[in-house]
Design goal:
With about 80 residues, the protein is mainly α. It contains 3 helices and no strands.
């Protein structure tokens, strides 16, 4: 059973030309979802970009800030979970 044909409304921010190319690409690769293809493309792009050590250091610093790992002295660990 194949997947339902998308209207493309969710991904209209891609533009008509890129969305058409992406839809055709997904159709020729076993009916993969557009969202899955976008996730894979973003992951591949980030992996490629983070080969640069300066970009990776900035990325990790931003991640630590977002996760609140900069000031470990303010972190109160949760007690172990009881079974």
């Amino acid at each position: 059973m194949s997947r339902r044909l998308s209207t493309g409304a969710t991904f209209k921010w891609l533009g008509d030309e890129l969305l058409a190319d992406l839809t055709d690409y997904c159709a020729c690769h076993g009916d993969m979802s557009v969202a899955w293809a976008i996730r894979k493309a973003v992951r591949d792009y980030l992996n490629h970009e983070l080969n640069d050590m300066q970009k990776k250091a900035a990325f990790l610093e931003a991640r630590r800030g977002r996760l609140g790992l900069e000031g470990q002295e303010k972190v109160t660990p949760l007690p172990p979970r009881k079974s």
